[in-house]
Amino acid sequence: MESIARGLDVVRCFGADRPRMSLSDVASATGLARPTARRILITLEELGYVRSQDGGFTLTARVLELGMAYVHAQGLWALARPHMEDLVARTHESSSIAQLDGSDIVYVARVAVPKIITFAVSIGTRFPALQTSLGKVLLAGLDPAELADVLAQPSRSGITPRWQPDDDERDAALRQVRARGWAMADEDLAPGIRSIAVPLRDGAGTVVAALNTTGHAAETSREVLVDQHLPRLLEAASAVGADIALHDEVPHLRAAT
């Protein structure tokens, strides 16, 4: 088990800012001894997850299989994709689905339009939850004990968000999300990013993820998000939720026949 944990630590130490790392870089980033880091890198290379070149190491595309296995197991992408594509066609804005992982959100589905924003987003990208519309929706769905536990965990996104609320401001923001049933992030994460999100619920009404529409703040006003995009977003979320409920019922229906 310790070897698995160390191997995952090595994979996670690579990133957009560190796509290529030397053995010393990996050992330093993971806190592993150089011989241990070397053995793990060699094993990962044999398995096809790492490539060595010019005295350094890079991840290969096969690493995507690890994350996509989770996405496919959840079934969210297959269920949500047609509804998200329709939403994007109607709003001309990007749309994403995310779930909580500690105090971060992780993107598990996305349909994008070509616009330049502060951060590039793809499946597997993580951001601090509190400063995103997706994260606000998900945090607002937690009970007080769960919320405190989640927010106590440090972000692993490596990003310092623009909005840094105190406890009272944070709690007021989440109360507003609960009352409205949707959340907005107006350049809370970084300049230029404005988004609106709603919850995705399963057949029991439990919030299982969040769905958003994201635009550039210079092009998409708050009024456009609320007056034009929110009704379409709610419609899409309802359709995805209905498909999730039907999907969840299939095993039970089969078992009964």
The gist of it:
With 257 residues, this protein is α+β, with helices and mostly antiparallel strands. It is built from 9 helices and 9 strands.
Written description of the protein model:
By secondary structure, the chain is an alpha+beta fold. The chain folds into 2 domains: 2-59, Orthogonal Bundle (Arc Repressor Mutant, subunit A), CATH 1.10.10.10; 66-253, Beta-Lactamase, CATH 3.30.450. The protein has helices at residues 2-13, 23-30, 34-47, 64-74, 76-91, 133-140, 144-151, 167-180, 222-256, and strands at 20-21, 50-53, 56-59, 94-101, 104-111, 126-128, 183-186, 193-201, 207-216. The strands form 2 sheets. It has a 6-stranded antiparallel sheet. A 3-stranded antiparallel sheet has the order 1-3-2. The model is unreliable at 251-257 (pLDDT under 50).
Element-level helix/strand string: HEHHEEHHEEEHHHEEEH
CATH superfamily heading of the largest domain: GAF domain
Characterize the overall form.
globular
SS-derived structural category:
alpha+beta
State the share of residues found in helices, binned by percent: 40-55%
**Strand residue percentage:** 15-25%
Distance between the termini: 41 Å
Mean pLDDT: 89
Tally the helices: 9
Using only C-alpha atoms, the radius of gyration works out to 20 Å
Descriptive key words:
49% helix, globular, Beta-Lactamase, Arc Repressor Mutant, subunit A
